[in-house]
Structure formats: C-alpha cells, structure tokens
Design brief:
heterodimer, A: mainly alpha, 5 helices, about 0% strand, elongated, B: mainly alpha
Chain lengths: ~120, ~210
C-alpha cells in the first residue's frame, strides 16, 4: 500500500476541511443533557450517600485483611460457639484419650508451709 | 557522564517539571456529585460543544453525533461520585469516551454496509457546495469506519482533533511509540480507502 504525494495532499486537504466542522448544541440537546444530570443526581440520592473516604469501618476491615479474613473469623467464631454449646461427644472422648485421666493440679500455698522443712 | 551526574540531571529535570495543571472541570464535577446542580449547568455549557464537535468530525452525522454527546455526558454524570481529582483530567476522559462511542457507531455502520449509508440523508438541493462538502465529510467518516478501531481513533485524535502524540497516548492509555505507529498506519489506510472515491470527493482522478 503506497501513498503518493497527490493522495497525501488530497487527504490532508480533506482532514483540514473536517477539522473546521463545528456544531453548537441546540437547546433541545442541552435540555436533554441537563435532565439526565438531574436524574442521575436523584438516583444517587435514592441509593444513599456515597462515602467519600470509606470511613473507619472500612479502614478497620482493611487492617484485618479484608473480607476473606472476616469470612474466616466468622467461621471460626461459629465453630467455637457450636463446640461450646453442643459439646459433641467425640470431643470429650478425644480429650480423655489425650489426657488419659482427670488430673487436678493445685498451685498455691500449702496449708502448712513448714511441713516441707520437717523431717 | 557519571551515574551521579545523570541522576543529578534527572533531579533537575524533575524539579523543573511543570506542576500538575489545575482541572477546574474536575472541581465542577465533584461539586455536581455533591449536589450542586449549577455545576452541572456550567459543565454542560462548557463540554457539550466539545463532545458534539468531536463526534461530528468522526461520524459526519448530526443525529448520531447528538446521541453520542448525550450518552457521553450521561456517563460523566454517573462517574461523578467516583471522580478522583488529580488522577485524571475531564478533557482526557471525554476524548476517550467520545472516541470509543464513535468507533462503536462506525463499526455498526460498517456492518450495515457502506453502500446503504454512503449518501448523505436529505441533501438540500439548492446548495450545491454544501452537498459536495457533506458528501466529502461523509466519505471521510465512512473511510474511517473501514479502519481498525484503534487506528481510526488515533487518526481522528491526531488529524481531526489536532492532539499531540503525548496527549493521544494518555487518551488511549498506550505508549507514544504505539501512537506513532497507529497514526502512520491509519493515515495510509485512510488514503487507500479514499482512493476509490475521488469522484465523491470532488477530485479529478488524474
């Protein structure tokens, strides 16, 4: 594909002519555009104010790691609550098998602190 | 030149870089988003003629250009609440959205078929020059429609809007070399597309 000097001149003339095209919007078009702007404003008001910065809640959420972290937190909280409320039998069996038996350890001052010194 | 000297030169250049240009239209857009309807009026008066001009030069069809203008402005109203001043300029955004909507229209025109739409609608018979002018502009627009879209946008922004290559690069969100390549290929393709329409254009085919 080659462009001769003549083609280029013709095209340049045509482009220059096209650049000169000016159109002023008529009152109808301006009115339609302004009506759209009012409608868009009204739609925004209906859908509530848009927070400009996102607010403290969003900052806190971002600090935690965003929504995926919140999902994990909710899941583990629910699991903890369930374990606490339902106390599944398998869990106490598991605890018994790990500890073997109930052991109670008391830390504190003996009733007779001098007993250790006695022979 | 040592690396230190080069770094110092770059620092000097950075210090002399012009500060970001103020964007009063961006400020008006934010005011509109905050409920200032008078700002919308000012924006409409300032921007609608620009958008309509760009759309007319690309489409050469008043009704279509008016539809595009209304659509571009509607998108501007909708983007207003999310507008971040300083990140983008309203003028650049407008060039981009208008160019995209116009190439959408040109693509549809191409799929309808050039022959069906090549004639200007209802030419005024008494004004021969005007008919010739309209036909020439329409032929140019149809030739733009035959180009790949990115080429058509680059050529239109360069040769119809008179933007510089760096300006086109930010409108089209590409590098300056890509702009140079698109405008060069686009202009050659445009000349080729117009070659067979010399009669329509009023040129002697000698």
């Amino acid at each position: 594909m080659t462009m001769t000097d003549r083609d280029e001149m013709d095209l340049d003339d045509l482009l220059a002519e096209a650049r000169e095209q000016r159109l002023e919007p008529g009152p109808d078009l301006l009115a339609r555009i302004l009506a759209d702007s009012e409608r868009a404003s009204a739609e925004r008001k209906l859908s509530g104010p848009v927070p400009v910065t996102g607010g403290a809640w969003r900052d806190w959420l971002r600090l935690l790691g965003g929504w995926p972290t919140v999902g994990g937190l909710v899941a583990s909280t629910a699991a903890g609550l369930w374990i606490g409320v339902a106390q599944p039998a398998t869990l106490s069996d598991l605890a018994d098998s790990v500890w073997g038996e109930q052991v109670s350890v008391t830390f504190g001052v003996d009733a007779d602190p001098l007993s250790l010194l006695e022979g | 030149m040592s690396r230190l000297a080069r770094a110092m030169t770059r620092l000097d250049e950075m210090a002399s870089d012009p500060p970001p240009r103020p964007d009063p239209e961006g400020a008006l857009l934010v005011a509109y988003a905050n409920g200032d309807q008078e700002a919308a009026r000012e924006l409409t008066v300032a921007l609608a003629p620009r958008v309509l001009g760009q759309a007319t030069r690309m489409l050469s069809d008043r009704a279509e250009a008016e539809d595009v203008t209304q659509e571009v402005m509607l998108r501007l109203w909708r983007v207003a609440p999310d507008w971040r001043q300083g990140e983008a300029r309203v003028a650049t955004w407008l060039y981009r959205v208008t160019a995209n909507l116009c190439t959408d229209r040109l693509r549809r025109r191409r799929s309808v078929g050039l022959d069906e739409v090549a004639e200007p609608p209802d030419p005024t018979p008494s004004v021969a020059d005007r008919i010739q002018g309209d036909a020439r502009m329409r032929a140019l627009s149809d030739a733009l429609a035959s180009l790949p879209e990115r080429q058509a946008q680059a050529v239109a922004l360069r040769h119809l809007e008179g933007l510089t290559n760096p300006e086109i690069a930010s409108v089209m969100e590409i590098g300056i070399e890509a702009v140079e390549s698109l405008t060069a290929r686009g202009k050659r393709a445009l000349a080729a597309a117009l070659k067979g329409r010399k009669e329509e254009l009023g040129y002697d085919d000698d």
